[in-house]
């Protein structure tokens, strides 16, 4: 009997050792293959389109977090308190078809900022969304900045997310003079950082005939940050980059999914019948003083994914907006009401006019 117990314990020890080695090997593999970008990179500029018209002074923008075609009206998400890890293949293809069609409707926009664009990820059934959208937006210049890359996310245990690759995509009617992706380098401990986003902004630059530049930034800031520490760090970096450009006399527009409410947001101003909520903590009062926070106060831009969308029941808020330098006049802003059909976000449109350069003898003409 004693010998039998010894053999059982021996085999249990061997199995436990093998299990530990497998776990160590798995995390070693993820560590060796970790997506770890430098602080700044220069993404390739692809596509084709018009040369920049240096005398142009009026521009239109669209920003939209497309939720990787996995968070349309009928879905929830396990990490936010729901049950689903990914939609069915039919749902995903339907959501992406709707996203692609909606983006094509806005081809009139000079600049299109998209967030959560997947490239061969399990959660979106291995669609190459960036390539498909690049084809749909023909005669456009484009740049892509990866902010998510993990070869295998092992949670949830019963249905692992698997491979994820995603990022920010900016489409422009005009050829950029350059593109830069700046990574926020938010500190996350190992091993959590292996499966989390490496968030960034994607900045494109356009030369104008008055010697200044139009600088446009596409950003996706941190969620799951109840203390606000990550977002504060990201805002500080954005502040320094945007302020430096403005001090050079350049025109600056930053738009995207901020995962924070814009300054001036009040949930009671939402008139769509949705249940408006506030995200804490608010944006620090010292962030970009004197700059304009541009959003449509009447319509939520984001819905919570702890349940499928139901108007008046599902919590909603506004986190998609633009921040615009003081030398730019905003002419129009409007969110696109879609009932969160294809994404957990609504697109937001904005029109602007660049103010005359005070250093010039004659202010530049306003060319549509």
Polypeptide structure, described:
With 368 residues, the protein is an alpha+beta fold. The chain has 2 domains: 1-32; 40-354, Endonuclease/exonuclease/phosphatase (Deoxyribonuclease I, Chain A). Helices cover 20% and strands 28% of the residues. The protein has helices at residues 2-32, 89-105, 129-136, 229-247, and strands at 40-41, 45-47, 58-65, 111-118, 141-153, 162-172, 178-183, 200-207, 213-220, 251-257, 275-276, 292-294, 302-303, 315-317, 320-324, 328-335, 348-354. Helix 2 (89-105) packs parallel to helix 3 (129-136).
How would you concisely characterize the structure shown here?
The protein is α+β, with helices and mostly antiparallel strands and 368 residues long. The chain is 20% helix and 28% strand.
Q: What is the N-to-C order of secondary-structure elements (H for helix, E for strand)?
A: HEEEHEHEEEEEHEEEEEEEE
Name the beta content range: 25-35%
CATH class of the largest domain: Alpha Beta
Q: How many strands in all? A: 17
Tell me the CATH topology of the largest domain.
Answer: Deoxyribonuclease I, Chain A
Q: What's the main sheet like?
A: 7 strands, mixed
Name of the CATH superfamily of the largest domain: Endonuclease/exonuclease/phosphatase
Helix content: 10-25%
CATH architecture of the largest domain: 4-Layer Sandwich
């Amino acid at each position: 009997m004693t010998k039998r117990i010894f053999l059982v314990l021996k085999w249990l020890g061997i199995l436990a050792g093998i299990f530990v080695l497998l776990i160590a090997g798995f995390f070693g593999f993820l560590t060796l293959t970790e997506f770890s970008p430098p602080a700044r990179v220069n993404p390739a500029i692809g596509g084709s389109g018009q040369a920049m018209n240096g005398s142009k002074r009026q521009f239109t923008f669209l920003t939209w977090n497309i939720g990787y075609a996995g968070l349309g009206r009928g879905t929830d998400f396990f990490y936010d308190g729901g049950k689903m890890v990914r939609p069915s293949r039919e749902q995903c293809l339907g959501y992406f078809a709707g996203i692609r069609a909606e983006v094509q409707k806005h081809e009139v926009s000079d600049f299109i900022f998209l967030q959560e664009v997947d490239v061969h990820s399990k959660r979106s059934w291995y669609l190459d969304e960036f390539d498909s959208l690049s084809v749909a937006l023909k005669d456009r210049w484009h740049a892509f900045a990866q902010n998510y890359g993990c070869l295998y996310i092992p949670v949830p245990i019963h249905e692992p997310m698997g491979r994820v690759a995603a990022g920010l995509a900016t489409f422009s009617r005009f050829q950029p003079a350059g593109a830069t992706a700046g990574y926020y380098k938010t500190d996350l401990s190992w091993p959590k950082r292996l499966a989390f986003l490496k968030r960034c902004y994607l900045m494109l630059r356009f030369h104008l005939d008055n010697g200044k530049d139009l600088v446009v930034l596409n950003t996706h800031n941190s969620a799951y940050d109840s203390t606000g520490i990550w977002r504060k760090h990201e805002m500080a970096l954005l502040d320094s980059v945007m302020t430096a450009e403005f001090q050079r006399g350049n025109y600056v527009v930053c738009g995207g999914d901020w995962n924070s409410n814009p300054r001036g947001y009040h949930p009671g101003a939402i008139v769509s019948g949705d249940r408006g909520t506030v995200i804490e903590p608010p944006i620090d009062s010292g962030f970009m003083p004197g700059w304009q926070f541009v959003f449509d106060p009447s319509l939520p831009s984001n819905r919570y994914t702890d349940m499928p969308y139901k108007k008046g029941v599902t919590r909603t808020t506004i986190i998609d907006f633009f921040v615009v330098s003081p030398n730019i006049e905003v002419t129009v802003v409007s969110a696109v009401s879609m009932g969160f059909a294809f994404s957990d976000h609504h697109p937001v449109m904005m029109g602007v006019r660049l103010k005359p350069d005070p250093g010039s003898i004659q202010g530049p003409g306003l060319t549509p």
